[in-house]
């Protein structure tokens, strides 16, 4: 294992603390990842109450099954995001299947399309939140404030070449939201679920 492959110390320590049953560790885990979990769940489900339920389920699972996370497999953030995605998609499918069983509009194919669409949206959100701040800042200026690369460069205080590079890299990362087998994609976060 190379130095680059070694999981961050915080991730390893947190996993050990959860395994020992330290309640304070669960609080720290929640403080660090609750907004990520709730945001991803809400993106998939489109419902505040359902997102709250998935958020509780994710942290309950992390507390009850701390050994399910293996620091050698990747960052804790990625594991939490994948767990969130899996539980949210499971809940979305269950709700959609129940609605279909009770004569709701649509078909099983429509439900799978909805799940795929929600998965791509959730992956895009995860990518944006996980990308380095300089890339995210450039994308936010270009997208939300409608800045071109020259205006983005001026706003960020970088060269135009650097602004173009940041925008290009950010867009390339976002393009992987549609890839189900994207490199470094969190397991379970992608177009196919």
In short, what is this structure?
With 193 residues, the protein is an all-alpha fold. The protein is 70% helix and 0% strand.
The major pleated sheet works out as: none
Question: Which structural class matches the secondary elements?
Answer: mainly alpha
Q: Indicate the radius of gyration in whole angstroms.
A: 19 Å
Order of helices and strands: HHHHHHHH
Low-confidence parts lasting 5 or more residues at pLDDT below 50? 181-193
| Tally of strands | 0
Tell me which oligomeric state these chains represent.
single chain
Helix content: over 70%
What number is the mean pLDDT? Answer: 82
What characteristic shape results from the CA principal axes?
A: flat
Organism: Streptomyces incanus
Protein name: Sigma-70 family RNA polymerase sigma factor
Keywords: Sigma factor, Transcription, Transcription regulation
InterPro entries: RNA_pol_sigma-70-like (IPR039425), RNA_pol_sigma-70_dom (IPR014284), RNA_pol_sigma70_r2 (IPR007627), RNA_pol_sigma_r2 (IPR013325), RNA_pol_sigma_r3/r4-like (IPR013324), WH-like_DNA-bd_sf (IPR036388)
Can you walk me through this structure?
Residues 29-95 form the RNA polymerase sigma-70 region domain. Keywords: Sigma factor, Transcription, Transcription regulation. Belongs to the sigma-70 factor family. ECF subfamily. With 193 residues, the chain is an all-alpha fold. Helices cover 70% and strands 0% of the residues. It has helices spanning 9-19, 23-45, 48-64, 76-101, 108-130, 133-144, 149-156, 160-175.
